[in-house]
Amino acid sequence: MKKWKASYTVEASVIVPLVLWVLAVVMQLGIAMHEEIEGQKEQEAVADLWEVDEFYICQTVGEIVDDQS
Predict the structure, then answer these.
(1) What is the C-alpha separation between 49 and 43, in angstroms, rounded?
(2) C-alpha distance from residue 64 to each of 7, 28, 50, 56, 60 (Å)
(3) pTM to 2 decimal places
(4) pLDDT by residue (tens digit) across 18-63?
(5) How far is Cα 21 from Cα 16, in angstroms, rounded to an integer?
(6) Who has greater pLDDT, 13 or 67?
(7) Helix (H), strand (E) at residue 68
(8) At 64, is the pLDDT very low, low, confident or very high (cuts 50, 70, 90)?
(9) Is 65 or 31 the better-scoring residue by pLDDT?
(10) CA separation for the pair 21, 29 (Å, rounded)
(11) How many CA atoms lie within 13 A of 27 on its CB side?
(12) C-alpha radius of gyration, the chain, whole number
């Protein structure tokens, strides 16, 4: 019986750290992907604001040109 218990201990001493390492890597990748997606959302929000600003500038310029005609 002791032979089997030692065998399980040796296997567990190899498998458990390996599983923990894999979980840590997967969590790091998940966090990195989350941060990348949040960054893209912020960039899209800024781009939308620039588009709105440009629209208002073009609209104002168009009104000024129409008023001068």
Answers:
(1) 10
(2) 86, 54, 21, 12, 6
(3) 0.56
(4) 999 999 999 999 999 999 999 888 888 877 777 777 777 777 766 6
(5) 9
(6) 13
(7) helix 2-68
(8) low
(9) 31
(10) 12
(11) 6
(12) 30
Handedness of CA 39, 45, 51, 56 (dihedral sign): negative
Amino acid at 30: G
Give me the amino acid identity at 43. Q
> Higher pLDDT residue, 65 or 7?
7
Which tokens go with 58? Answer: 């073009």
- Here the tokens at position 42 are 């912020």
